Amino acid sequence: MREKRLKQYLYEHERLWKDLRKVRELDLPQCYIAAGYIRNYIWDKLHGFEDRQRHNDIDVVYYDKDYASEERDIGLEKELIEQTGDPKWSVKNQARMHIRNGEKPYLSTIDALSRWPETVTALGGRLDANDELDICSPYGLEDLFNLVVRRSPLFKDKELYLNRVHKKEWKKHWPLITILDE
Fold first, then answer.
1. DSSP 8-state assignment for residue 155
2. What is the pLDDT of residues 2-22, one digit of tens each?
3. 3-state secondary structure 24-92
């Protein structure tokens, strides 16, 4: 039910649709547009706001343990920026992000997303060859649609989580959300 609703909302977002097609053209394994681009758009919809393009970046995540160089990601970012004219692209191979986060190696994109700070940020979408949306959401969509921000169970640093949600000022932009400080 919630996935159907999410897909319906995303089908209405013309710019996101173009970006999903661009990302599909990269032909990267387990590749999604993730996090705030999708989350913020859904929060805008649930608040009755017109699409305000409220995203700081366009997070592209994928998993390729055989080719995990940062240089590759930088090259992909440059390619997307040149093709779209949008400087907000951020590409990260999740096969190496465990190092930055001081954790054991991630096994997949969904495993990496499950370790992101908030359940509502652990969210991705991609298009298959038939332009059908595939949603990656390790914690489901309940928090997203209930406007609840909570720390992901596998994200252990409570202080970092609290600082992050405070710094982002989400409550200021989306007053109906509830931020849990558990």
1. -
2. 999 999 999 999 999 999 999
3. HHHCCCCCEEECHHHHHHHHHHHHCCCCCCCCCCEEEEECCCCCCCHHHHHHHHHHHHHHHCCCCEEEE
Q: Which long-range contacts (CB under 8 A, 24 or more apart) does 19-23 make?
A: 19/58, 19/84, 20/125, 20/126, 20/127, 20/133, 21/127, 21/131, 22/80, 22/83, 22/84, 23/60, 23/80, 23/126, 23/127
Cα–Cα distance measured from residue 84 to residue 70, given in angstroms and rounded to the nearest whole number: 21
Query: Mapped to the 3 state alphabet, what secondary structure does 161-174 carry?
Result: HHHHHHHHCHHHHC
**Residue 153: which of 99, 109, 116 has the closest Cα?**
116
Instruction: Categorize the per-residue pLDDT at 101 as very low, low, confident or very high, splitting at 50, 70 and 90.
Output: confident
pLDDT at 165 over 70: yes
Angle at 91 between CA 86 and CA 94, to 5 degrees: 160
Residues 40 and 54 sit within 8 Å (Cβ to Cβ): yes
Mean pLDDT of the chain: 94
